[in-house]
Structure formats: structure tokens, C-alpha cells
Amino acid sequence: MGDVQRIKNHIEKTRKYLYELIKVKGNLTDEEIVLISQELDKAINVYYKVQKTKLEGYSYI
User: Fold this and answer.
1) What Å distances lie between residue 52 and 2, 12, 30, CA to CA?
2) Contact of 36 with 17, CB cutoff 8 Å
3) Which domains, ranges and CATH numbers included, belong to the chain?
4) Residues contacting residue 30 through CB under 8 Å, at least 6 positions apart
5) pLDDT digits (tens, 9 = 90+) for 27-56
6) Burial class for 24, CB neighbours closer than 10 Å (0-12, 13-18, 19+)
7) DSSP category for residue 28
8) Contact assessment for residue 5 and residue 52, using Cβ atoms and an 8 Å cutoff
9) What is the three-state SS of 19-61?
């Protein structure tokens, strides 16, 4: 499995966990929800950095 696929899987698992946690706790300012939200944000940022690096590697000339 490539890096991009691993990151996408991590994002999907984290997103699902976050949504379930929000349903259970219901408080968006709960410490655990904030931490999971930050983890999701970091994973998405890494995904976009990897995608950008891949795109910069291609020559359009």
C-alpha cells in the first residue's frame, strides 16, 4: 500500500471515529474531540503536501 493510500485510510478512520465521538459526547469543546479533530487536520495537511509534491514532480512541458 502506498503512502497516499495509507494517509487516506488514516483520514477516513479518524473522521469516522470523530463523528461517532461527537454523537456520543455532543460537546464540540470536549478535550478528546478537540484532540481528534487536530489529528484529522494534521493528517489532511500531510495528504495535501504529498499530493502537491507528486504534482510538482510531473513536467507539463
Assistant:
1) 16, 20, 33
2) yes
3) 3-56 (4.10.280.10)
4) 21
5) 999 999 999 999 999 999 999 998 888 777
6) exposed
7) T
8) no
9) HHHHHHHCCCCCHHHHHHHHHHHHHHHHHHHHHHHHHHCCCCC
Higher pLDDT residue, 28 or 3?
28
Q: How far apart (Å, rounded) are the C-alpha atoms in residues 39 and 42?
A: 5
pTM beyond 0.70: yes
pLDDT at 31: 96
Q: Which residue in this structure is represented by grid cell 507539463?
A: 60
Q: Is residue 45 a contact partner of residue 10, using CB atoms and an 8 Å limit?
A: no
